[in-house]
Amino acid sequence: MNENLFNILDYINEGIVILNDGLDILFWNKSMEELVGIKKSMACNSKLFEILPQLNKNYFKEAIDGVLGKGYKYFFSSKMHESIISDDFEINLKLNKIESQGSSYLMIEFIDITSQCIRIEQLKEYANELYFLNTELKNREKEIERLAYYDKLTNVGNRTLFYTLAEKLLASAKRNNTILGLMFIDIDRFKSINDKYGHMAGDKVLVKIANTLTKCVRETDTVVRHGGDEFLILLPDLKEYYNYKLIANRILGADKKVKVTEDAEIDISLSIGISFYPKDGDTVDELILNADEAMYNVKRMGGDKCIKYN
């Protein structure tokens, strides 16, 4: 073959081996020396499988026959054929037929992709790190949102969440001509529970009531802790004003026993007042004020009831 061609191939940054149809090595470039540690002087004029015995496999011999006999082109991936040439490098192989001056030759390209593989693995690790970091950030965002909108003790909504939702639900009720109910709930004799059993017992009572209210309302309703022992419930889209009674009866009839000490269990009762848009107010503050007044009327009656404003 042309000597000038060999000189050019000697400077290509991948291993190049050219063989005749008897698999005698005619050319072995400098990059090939670096890849496998075998000098050109030793490789040239030797048989391929003597110099690179790891290629002496049936599937590789069949590929060579296909290239020389039928002009096929073959590609061997380092991922499918690990360590086909070297344990230190990731090398792809390409087999092509060259015809020159009536003769056929086999050219094998040994393409070192080690740096690309390392980079790919680094990118995979980086992607995994980004995924876990993103997950952590999302979890922190959820925690920040929980702290901003939910009561730390009872895990129901707080005043911030209440006013955010109440304004939206009130606007929706006005737009759609629907009824919005607002329950104002106070725990009966809560101060005496704290005074007699301590604040830890009071906290147990608050958690119990928050859980009870959450279980008794509809999925569309919202329970919030207004502060202290006061809770509010937003009841959107009531079909009729009296529909609140079903929810109120669930709450009043629910098991509200709390074990405040090892030896003492108390039964909690609630005073509940309720107001409605549009009947009892046109703003959120009006609805709160009127539901609060109804709740205090229940207190005067001894508690453990739910009554409407007016």
Describe this structure in words.
The structure is a single chain. The protein has 310 residues and is an alpha+beta fold. It folds into two domains: 3-112, Beta-Lactamase (2-Layer Sandwich); 150-308, Alpha-Beta Plaits (2-Layer Sandwich), CATH 3.30.70. The chain is 46% helix and 24% strand. The protein is built from eleven helices and twelve strands. It has helices at 3-9, 30-36, 40-43, 48-51, 58-70, 114-149, 159-176, 190-197, 199-216, 244-253, 284-300; strands at 15-20, 25-28, 74-76, 91-100, 103-112, 179-187, 222-227, 230-238, 257-259, 265-267, 270-277, 305-308. A five-stranded antiparallel beta sheet has the order 2-1-5-4-3. Strands 7-8-6-11-12 form a five-stranded mixed beta sheet, with helices on both faces. It has a two-stranded antiparallel ribbon with strand order 9-10. A hairpin with a 2-residue loop joins strand 4 (91-100) and strand 5 (103-112). The radius of gyration is 41 Å and the shape is rod-shaped. It starts with a helix and ends with a strand.
- Arithmetic mean of pLDDT: 89
Strand content: 15-25%
Q: Helix segment count?
A: 11
- Roughly how many Å is the radius of gyration? 41 Å
